Amino acid sequence: MVTAGCTTPPPVAGSTRGSVAYVATLAGRADPGDDLAVVDTATGRALPPVTTGSLPTAMAATPDGHDLLVANKGVNQLAEVSTATGEVVRRTTVGLEPDAVAVAPDGTLALVANFGDGTVTPVALPSLTAGRPIAVGRQPVSVAIAPDGKVALVANYEDGSVTPIALTTATAGPPVPAGLQPISVVITPNSAAALVADFGADQLTPIDLATMQPVGTIPLPANPTDIALWEADPTAWVSAGDGVVPIDLFTLRAGSPMAVGTGAQALAIGDGGTTAWVGGGNGTLVPVDLATGRAGRPVAVGGQPTAVAIPPAPAG
Question: Which CATH number characterizes residue 229's domain?
Fold first, then answer.
């Protein structure tokens, strides 16, 4: 079995060290919505929303924490938001219905998965210049870039596969089977393996990146939706059913679920790696203490939260 953990892993690209959570709520303040909800994770208070464009659905922070890239599904754009001001500083057109975005560890590249046309758009940073689309599978809904910057994986919801993309050549490789409805993918800190959440089969599929082959499955509670990692922590965290499930990256086994009190739709790790901030199906963001498994006071954000991002605190 592939060993997903490592003794001294490097930081995960886009790891969360800040104190502000951004939440895509789909509904937001208008239909179909053009705002991200914002929460101060230190105080648990809602802050004024950030307007990015029609139907913001996915987010990824730049490694320096200065910017948040937001996929606006309703207008086929990627927006760059300054975390200092909450204002959109530039936009670029990508593919049809962008549904996921990831940023490379060196901060020079973003990849946007376009749900509507089965492509991934590479976007050069910091200029936010869109490049030639890369064909992947049907309905791509998640993209992850390896910490070593060599490969990206794209989860194709409709095809039951993930597509590897070699970043040096911007070319897609053969699809890898990944269950019924792969909905989220992450790559481990040592860039040796990936974990794919299978919404339709209630499981995770580990993939060995050296062979690009699946390695067994990990059963989960109903309908896993998202996966998060935190720097050197040898644990992955999965939102599934009504809670958060820890996954040991060395043994690839699931631990006991941590109850959230509502349907768990998405999550991000913050507060120095101590807390999972979980998007609840009842329009809340719920803090879960990862040491004790206890859920804290929910923060009302509205809508149906489906993505959470906590950018690193900007340096300087």
Answer: 2.130.10.10
Burial of residue 215 (number of CB atoms within 10 Å: 0-12, 13-18, 19+):
middle
**264-270 and 284-289: which strand pairing?**
unpaired
- Classify residue 283: in a domain, yes or no: yes
Closest-CA residue to 146 (of 310, 11, 313): 11
Q: 64: which 2 tokens?
A: 């320096």
Check: CB of residue 40 under 8 Å from CB of residue 33: no
Asked if residue 1 belongs to a domain, the reply is: no
- Evaluate whether residue 316 is within a structural domain: no
Give the domain extent around 82: 20-309
Tokens of 243: 């809670």
Burial of 19 (0-12, 13-18, 19+ CB in 10 A): middle
pLDDT digit string, tens, across residues 195-242: 999 999 999 999 999 999 999 999 998 899 999 999 878 999 999 999
Question: Based on the structure, what is the number of domains in the chain?
Answer: 1
Is the pTM of the predicted complex or chain greater than 0.70? yes
Residue 273 included in any domain? yes
Per-residue CA distances from 57 to 79, 149, 220 (Å): 11, 24, 24
